[in-house]
Design a protein that fits this description.
With about 270 residues, the protein is α/β, with parallel strands linked by helices. It has helices at about 20-30, 50-55, 70, 85-95, 110-120, 135-150, 170-185, 190, 245-255, 265-270; strands at about 10-15, 35-40, 65, 75-80, 100-105, 125, 155-160, 190-195, 210-215, 220-230, 230-240, 260-265. Bound molecules: NADPH dihydro-nicotinamide-adenine-dinucleotide phosphate (NDP) and the ligand O=C(O)C1=N[C@H](C(=O)O)C[C@H](O)C1.
Length: about 270
């Protein structure tokens, strides 16, 4: 059993969300971590309640607040699977407080990322579009295959998610696209083909295409296809439980606790770089 003093003191943002609930339940089952506060957006029904009671269970002693700055006091790390605007605002608060920030939020613009990276000069930030071990290993396989095959192999990335997902392509698809582009020694922005509709013309040689499927309760499936005349190679990851993302994020929080300021990703956390 871990000494209570040594347990990482964690704040979860958006505790009523799909990932927020999963994160809180994984933290509460571990003695290496302690949930010290849950935040919600300003004016949320849960603000001011006890987290356990808000979820319909027994009181947990963990406050839910919409005052993010207060929630950070004494915390080692914030785990953030919310929205781009909430994430950028939290990065600034974490930088001021010197609190580590683990970011799973996707749909960030390049301007959002620039603001987050600026905050990483003051605190440790771990950001990844997918926190699972499997996807992070897959990025390395994709880079290796893309480096081995020339542009006769058309690269297409197909992702499927539940009907509630608001951004496309998924953060994972973009990570996989970055890995494929790195393998080919090109910039993803120069070759990405993100929206085909109507008379698109023939496929450009060297393009990396993205397709997004939305429906039902799919947690997250990703295929990276390398398609040439006469053969196709597909690398696939399928998530069947959100706990894979939560476990990765919480590993990142423990890793980031007390670490030097910087912009990190899951390859750093997993020692895969
Ligand atoms: N990197 C990874 O491994 C993964 C990333 N994700 C990403 O995480 C994000 C969230 O996904 P998911 O959990 O499915 O989405 P949900 O919509 O279920 O959860 C998001 C939560 O954030 C809350 N929220 C919004 N603004 C704030 C704020 N200012 N402070 C605190 N909480 C806030 C929302 O509250 P309200 O509903 O009241 O607005 C909601 O409860 C998405 O970007 C998704 O793509 C998801 C899974 C894995
Ligand atoms: O919104 C989700 O659910 C997920 N989002 C992440 C993404 O955009 O890739 C990770 C995972 O696929 C689930």
């Amino acid at each position: 059993m871990q000494d209570e003093e040594q347990a990482a003191r964690l704040v979860v943002m958006g505790g009523s969300g799909r990932m927020g609930r999963m994160l809180c339940s994984v933290i509460e089952a571990s003695d290496a971590m302690r949930l010290v506060a849950v935040t919600e957006a300003p004016g949320h029904d849960w603000a001011g309640q006890d987290f356990g009671s808000a979820t319909g269970g027994a009181p947990s002693g963990v406050p839910v607040t919409d005052d993010a700055a207060t929630a950070l006091r004494g915390a080692d790390a914030v785990i953030d699977f919310t929205t781009p605007s909430a994430t950028v605002a939290m990065a600034k608060l974490c930088a001021e407080a010197g609190c580590a920030h683990v970011i799973g939020t996707t749909g960030l613009t390049s301007e959002d990322i620039a603001q987050i990276d600026a905050c990483a000069a003051k605190t440790a930030i771990v950001r990844a579009g997918n926190m699972s071990l499997g996807v992070n290993l897959l990025t390395q396989l994709v880079q290796q295959v893309a480096a081995s095959l020339d542009a006769d192999y058309d690269i297409e990335i197909v992702e499927s998610h539940h009907r509630h997902k608001v951004d496309a392509p998924s953060g994972t698809a973009l990570m996989l696209g970055q890995a494929a582009a790195a393998g080919r020694g090109v910039a993803l922005d120069a070759v990405a083909d993100r929206g085909r509709d109507g008379i698109t013309g023939a496929r450009a040689r060297g393009a990396i295409g993205f397709s997004a499927i939305r429906g039902g309760d799919v947690i997250g499936d990703h295929d990276v296809m390398f398609m040439a005349d006469g053969e196709r190679l597909t690398l696939r990851h399928q998530a069947s439980d959100r706990s894979v993302f939560a476990r990765g994020a919480l590993k990142a929080a423990i890793w980031a606790k007390g670490r030097a300021p910087g912009a990190y990703d899951m390859l750093d956390v997993l020692g895969l770089r």
